[in-house]
Specification:
heterodimer, A: 550 residues, alpha+beta, Cell Cycle, Spindle Assembly Checkpoint Protein, Chain A, 6-stranded antiparallel β-sheet, two-stranded antiparallel ribbon, B: 233 residues, 12 strands, 32% helix, autophagy (chain B), ATG101 (chain B), Autophagy-related protein 101 (chain B)
Chain lengths: 550, 233
């Protein structure tokens, strides 16, 4: 009975919306955890490929993962799409940080218009998602990833599993959209007992690529795309063949109607784009200080292939965050292979280069596997030399031990560095000359705070203050504090404000009303023949009148 | 905690149905601008669409809205805004004025900035067009002075956390899917949307602010406009 209420066209449209909404949701979440600032352009002319009228780039690997997880299905009751965000230290330990859930419940809104209201509300929900992904704790962690840890994502479909988030996790709701087949809800459950992992701890070893990140942040927008790779180029020696992206891409061309929504014209067409060959989708070239590296998002083919020094690429990519420098002496040598080879669950293998640490990063669970949001540094055993003290109980301890290791040349404030004469640091000549131990830096280790009360404590920590009202003591329907000049508030019942409000909207004269305009035009037209007849009769008088005027 | 005031008659005509949201923040002087921009941009992100292009038969298509991340310099916080330099400039200008007014008002440092979304209703001569508000966001600001660097560092983090809460509050309100102006016909579009920007189209909005001077009375800087509106005939 439910389906008969929804026309088949509406049903098809709705399914399409939900599918693309799910894909865009995944893109927004993963992109928000890559550790870089996202920037897309507004375009006043609709391009037809921007779903929900929002410019959200599609990282092909991410779309691929999402489609794989969904396997042709849509979120439904009991079948939710989940994006799990976790943190993995260079020791190999991982911890779940967040689970983003796209769920469907049974509450249907039969009245709602699919191709109009649902579409716009999904757009609004994506905007909310953009906003919310920046305010959960994992955002700040992900912006500082690269040297001690990386952020990973995993997409799964089915039942939501929150047990990995630890005790006391919190939930934030992003929003809901009612549809005729159920209500879509989007929420995030996030771990809170990483409060001890405040970002300040990570600031003590600033990312080695800090300089590089700034380099990209300040880069002026090229004419076609701001910060994102707009094309993907294969690594030179990379023979990996990525399962091909579909040759056709579904395009959403929308037209909205301002007359009754039932007249809305919504067409979804399949447009065939010229996609680059499949191998294109799996590497990103990133110009980094004259060196070009390529990295792959999918962990199954994680490899670093530094090109020769001095060769740059015109493409802008995600800043490559990885621990330790490169072995500059052998520019073509790949960095520390992972110990475990293992057979990757994904058929294609890089022709040259090392395997990622398959065991640690890809744990196939019912066909699901991990993908790195940024290249992992866990294979860099050369530079993470001092940090292994065996696995400690809590990640907290692990992170503490990591601070003792060596850092490479391009670090802002290297700490605990024995001597700059350590020439086994790559690019040692670029290392800053002044080594100032951060322990003595008052900015990092502030002096003990004085006992005195500061205004800070009073104002910032007061949770309960809700402030006074804006002055309007009346709780009736006018919400705005309307204070006309020269009027007194205390004379009832007719002060100037009340008078003005009451007489502010006199009823429109019907002849002046625009709404009735359309109607009366028809009437006018109907009455024209009569009027013309009358005028015809008096034509002699009119002529005489005109004569007097000339 | 934020307060919402609702219409007593939920089905009432738009003229009487303006929801009002109040947010409060305590910030250091140098954080005022970024905090205000973060909130205003987050609201406008939700209240802006792509540019409308009307075609025949009353249909229209909608342009694309881009977004970008903004990192705050004085607050441990980042937010997303619409990619529109014009809009950003307009907000920065208003917030800049607010900040200056706060600074020059004396040591109290209390004030509020309001973002109001309204619809225009055209009246025939001799009545001027009315502005009917349908949503009002008020951010109350309390400026604190801090004694030392350590407190400032704590303040950076605390204000960052508070702003996260505010963003969540804003998104909650947006998600209620309450009254929004009907999508207008081409002739009406300027009564509902600000079509002057070249790349995005926010709902018609105006920003005003009030500074509370040390006597506790509020001096409205939009007083002039208010008088004009009140007495305009």
């Amino acid at each position: 009975a439910m389906d008969t209420d929804l026309s088949s066209q509406d049903r098809k449209d709705l399914d399409k919306f939900i599918k693309f909404f799910a894909l865009k949701t995944v893109q927004v979440i993963v992109q928000a955890r890559l550790g870089e600032k996202i920037c897309t352009r507004s375009s006043s002319s609709p391009t037809g490929s921007d779903w929900f009228n929002l410019a959200i780039k599609d990282i092909p690997e991410v779309t691929h993962e999402a489609k794989k997880a969904l396997a042709g299905q849509l979120p439904a009751v009991g079948r939710s799409m989940c994006v799990e965000i976790s943190l993995k230290t260079s020791e190999g330990d991982s911890m779940e940080l967040e689970i983003w859930c796209l769920e469907m419940n049974e509450k249907c809104d039969k009245e709602i218009k699919v191709s109009y209201t649902v579409y716009n509300r999904l757009s609004l929900l994506l905007k909310s998602l953009l906003a919310i992904t920046r305010v959960t704790p994992a955002y700040r962690l992900s912006r500082k990833q690269g040297h001690e840890y990386v952020i990973l994502y995993r997409i799964y479909f089915g039942e939501v599993q929150l047990s990995g988030l630890g005790e006391g996790f919190q939930t934030v709701r992003v929003g809901t959209v009612g549809t005729p087949v159920g209500t879509i809800t989007l929420s995030c459950a996030y771990r809170i007992n990483l409060a001890f992992m405040s970002t300040r701890q990570f600031e003590r070893t600033p990312p080695i690529m800090g300089i590089i990140i700034d380099h990209f942040v300040d880069r002026p927008y090229p004419s076609s795309s701001p910060m994102h790779p707009c094309n993907y180029r294969a690594g030179e020696d990379n023979g990996a063949v990525y399962p091909s992206v579909e040759d056709s891409q579904e395009v959403c061309t929308t037209s909205f109607s301002t007359s009754p929504p039932s007249q809305c014209v919504f067409t979804v067409t399949k447009a065939h784009f010229q996609t680059p060959p499949p191998v294109v989708t799996d590497t990103l070239k990133v110009p980094v200080m004259g060196l070009a590296f390529s990295h792959q998002l999918s962990s199954s083919r994680l490899s670093y292939q530094p090109a020769a020094l001095g060769v740059g690429s015109a493409d802008v990519g995600y800043p490559v965050l990885f621990a330790g420098g490169l072995n500059a002496a052998h520019p073509h040598q790949l960095i520390g292979p992972g110990k475990e080879g293992g057979v990757p669950p994904i058929p294609s293998q890089p022709a040259h280069g090392t395997q990622a640490d398959q065991e640690r990063m890809c744990t196939p669970l019912d066909g699901v596997h991990y993908s790195a949001a940024t290249p992992s540094s866990s294979e860099d055993t050369e530079t993470v030399s001092n940090s292994s003290e065996g696995k400690c109980g809590s990640p907290h301890d692990l992170l503490e031990t990591i601070f003792i290791r060596k850092v490479g040349a391009f670090v802002n404030k290297p700490i605990n560095q024995v001597t700059m004469a350590n020439l086994d640091i790559p690019f040692a000549m670029f290392a800053p000359k002044n080594v100032e131990l951060e322990d003595n830096d008052p900015m990092v280790n502030p002096p003990d705070s004085p006992e005195t009360e500061s205004p800070l404590q009073g104002s910032l920590h007061s949770e309960g203050s809700s402030g006074s009202s804006t002055g309007n003591t009346h709780d009736d329907f006018v919400m705005i504090d309307f204070k006309p000049a020269f009027s007194k508030d205390d004379i009832l019942p007719m002060d100037l404000g009340t008078f003005y409000r009451e007489f502010q909207n006199p009823p429109q004269l019907s002849s002046l009303s625009i709404d009735i305009g359309a109607q009366s035009m028809a009437e006018d037209l109907d009455s024209l023949p009569e009027k013309l007849a009358v005028h015809e009769k008096n034509v002699k008088e009119f002529d005489a009148f005109v004569e007097t005027l000339q | 905690p934020h307060r919402t005031r609702r219409d007593a008659q939920p089905g009432a005509a738009p003229t009487m149905n303006c929801r009002a949201e109040v947010l409060e923040v305590s910030v250091e002087g140098r954080q005022v601008e970024e905090a205000m921009l973060a909130v205003l941009h987050t609201v406008l992100l939700h209240r802006s669409t792509g540019k409308f292009h009307y075609k025949k038969e009353g249909t229209y298509s909608i342009g694309t809205v881009g977004t970008q991340d903004v990192d705050c310099d004085f607050i441990d916080f980042a937010y997303v805004r619409v990619s529109s330099e014009e809009l950003d400039r307009a907000l920065r200008k208003a917030v800049g004025e607010f900040k200056d007014a706060l600074r020059s008002s004396g040591s109290d440092g209390m004030g509020q900035i309001s973002l109001e979304f309204y619809q225009k209703k055209k009246s025939r001569w001799p009545f001027s067009d009315e502005c009917i508000p349908w949503e009002l966001w008020t951010i109350k600001v309390n400026v604190v002075n801090l004694a030392n660097e350590q407190e400032r560092q704590i303040c950076r983090e605390k204000v960052g956390e508070k702003l996260c809460e505010k963003i969540i509050n804003i998104v909650e309100v947006m998600n209620r899917h309450e009254y929004l102006p009907k999508m207008p016909t081409q002739s009406e579009v300027d009564n509902v949307f600000d079509t002057s920007l070249k790349d995005v189209q926010p709902y018609l909005y105006k920003i005003s602010y009030q500074i509370t001077d040390s006597l506790g009375t509020s001096v409205t800087t939009t007083m002039r406009r208010l008088i004009k509106d009140t007495l305009a005939l």
